[in-house]
Amino acid sequence: xxxxxxxxxxxxxxxxxxxxxxxxxxxxxxxxxxxxxxxxxxxxxxxxxxxxxxxxxxxxxxxxxxxxxxxxxxxxxxxxxxxxxxxxxxxxxxxxxxxxxxxxxxxxxxxxxxxxxxxxxxxxxxxxxxxxxxxxxxxxxxxxxxxxxxxxxxxxxxxxxxxxxxxxxxxxxxxxxxxxxxxxxxxxxxxxxxxxxxxxxxxxxxxxxxxxxxxxxxxxxxxxxxxxxxxxxxxxxxxxxxxxxxxxxxxxxxxxxxxxxxxxxxxxxxxxxxxxxxxxxxxxxxxxxxxxxxxxxxxxxxxxxxxxxxxxxxxxxxxxxxxxxxxxxxxxxxxxxxxxxxxxxxxxxxx
Length: 351
What we know:
It is a single chain. The relative contact order is 0.13. The chain has helices at residues 15-29, 58-63, 78-82, 101-105, 108-125, 139-144, 186-198, 215-226, 240-248, 264-271, 285-291, 301-310, 314-330, 333-348, and strands spanning 2-6, 33-37, 51-53, 67-71, 91-94, 128-131, 149-151, 173-176, 205-208, 232-236, 252-255, 276-279, 294-297. The chain folds into two domains: 2-155 and 333-348, 3-Layer(aba) Sandwich (Rossmann fold), CATH 3.40.50.2000; 173-330, 3-Layer(aba) Sandwich (Rossmann fold). With 351 residues, it is α/β, with parallel strands linked by helices. It contains 14 helices and 13 strands. A seven-stranded parallel sheet has the order 3-2-1-4-5-6-7.
């Protein structure tokens, strides 16, 4: 099968670019002939046996493809590239959680005209939707005009723990990631943590990662208002060499995004054997729940507080840790790539 991927930022630094590179390499290991159309860049890890092309060559590549897979909806300039391909080319579109309601509400005045402008092209193609999880499913018929979809997550990267200083306290709950208070649900986490503390939770909470806008002052004020300033540590940005140690030593990672593609910190926690409490909207909640690798929670304070209280039980943590190891085996890049291959076969088959 000849597959052409389009993601213009794929050779740049960052989370999704690295994911698409590693996925492309894993697809090639499945026996597919894989081409990747992307702007020039310096990052090419994971791209063994992959044909690289500039976006201006995408249309000619697409004419000879069995399936074309386009990543992201709101990458500037990308729609003008893929809208030119013929409607006879089987098309897979990955919205990458960008159609989740909370995402669309942010700067809707920019996104809606752009999304509405895509509708004639999407109606013509009737693509297969690639979804990270069932959380995205309601958006497929509404915005992508398709009832055909497949679910496939992203893989877990190998992780190792570098020697470094001991991080205290040794027994703590952790949020790690960009401190975007709204998107990452840190406001919900802190309110739930305050409620759980009043109900007897006796485990400190660390919030780590680079600040986002005025997040440092917002979080400090919220922590003080909730009366948990003696129990919550704002660690700020953590050096890369200490990041894995911090995650591995945590009792549980808590990640409550209002929207997200499979967040890298959750996948890092899985790689390191750390249980997770996650929202459905992280698009990893269903997998975590099925594997018993932690807890999927609704984005309400009461539900999150109940899950936080569970972390005090050592037997529960041990059970969740066993589930993490099971989920890790299911999220190797080669296992993940098998699901994409099945989705491509769906797209290449009868509509």
